[in-house]
UniProtKB/TrEMBL annotation:
This is Methyltransferase. GO terms for biological process: methylation. One of its GO terms (molecular function) is methyltransferase activity. It comes from the Bacteria. The keyword Secreted does not apply.
Length: 218
């Protein structure tokens, strides 16, 4: 995917660096942000749901993928509206809907057909149990999903969101992928070497944990 979409990724990294240098705070580290973009380019979703956006860093990566695909819409749910203030209007127009409030209260606004689900909100076991029951049950088999902040350590903390999600995946027989340094150092290093070879290793954002997991539903 890195090689296939290299030219577009170089452009997107430059655009994101401009936002970051202009003051937008980043919640995703570079590799997990790039993998999100690349996965969206490959899966070509028509409807993406983002639960948790904060300042809009992940939102802009997602919107750029939809822009570069030439179609698709994003529905974002968050209790704060920093993203609505910070996401560039030209990137948002015609492809983005923002719903302010706890998604547990605004779940009626979640689109019926979700082609990609991105979760980066309350990192609690209770919230994970909620979205597993209320959102994951809406997903068709094979739907791509990203869940952030799972692998800050080699294993997620007990009774955390990550622990709940990983147990659910194991129960479903679903294998996840991560480039987290703490949990998959070999993967992280292979991707890092690839980025060096392709000339895109200069950081946009200096975080290196990349704790996100990626998988598809069954």
């Amino acid at each position: 995917m890195y090689e296939k979409h290299l030219d577009a990724l170089i452009r997107v990294r430059a655009e994101q660096r401009e936002l970051h240098d202009g003051g937008m705070r980043a919640q995703l580290d570079d590799i997990e942000a790039e993998l999100t973009y690349l996965r969206l380019r490959e899966s070509t979703p028509r409807t993406v749901v983002e639960v948790g956006s904060l300042h809009g860093w992940s939102t802009t990566w997602i919107l750029r993928a939809l822009r570069d695909n030439g179609f698709g819409r994003l529905a974002t749910f968050d209790i704060v509206d920093g993203a609505r203030r910070d996401v560039p209007a030209g990137l948002a127009d015609g492809r983005w809907t923002f719903v302010r409030g706890d998604v547990r209260d605004t779940v009626g606004a979640v689109p019926g057909d979700i082609d990609y689900l991105f979760v980066d909100a309350a990192h609690t076991a209770r919230f994970a149990r909620w979205y597993l029951a209320e959102l994951f049950t809406r997903l068709r088999p094979g739907t791509p999903v990203s869940v952030h902040d799972v692998f800050h350590h080699a294993r997620p903390l007990p009774f955390s969101e990550g622990a709940v999600v990983l147990k659910w995946l194991a129960d479903q027989g679903i294998t996840s992928f991560t480039a987290a340094r703490a949990a998959a150092a070999d993967v992280y290093e292979r991707i890092t070497r690839t980025r060096v070879r392709l000339g895109i290793a200069e950081p946009v954002h200096r975080g290196t944990a990349n704790p996100m997991i990626f998988f598809r539903t069954r």
